Amino acid sequence: xxxxxxxxEVFPPKDFKAKxxxxxxxxxxxxxxxxxxxxxxxxxxxxxxxVTYLDLPLPSPSGWVR
Length: 66
Fold this sequence. Notes:
Oligomer: single chain
Number of strands: 0
Mean pLDDT: 82
Order of helices and strands: H
Distance between the termini: 34 Å
Shape: extended
Helix content: 25-40%
Low-confidence stretches: none
Strand content: under 5%
Structural class: mainly alpha
Largest sheet: none
């Protein structure tokens, strides 16, 4: 059985100033919402009816990756 490990590091913007733990929680909430927000256009452009991930293009972080 293969062993797969992924390490994802998320660093706040240089101008980020956290005053509480809740401020840091916002970063995680943004990361969690990105795939769903990115899929909105594909879902709206899909044919009517029930669609699955197989019917939609792969999500891409366009505009988010440098």
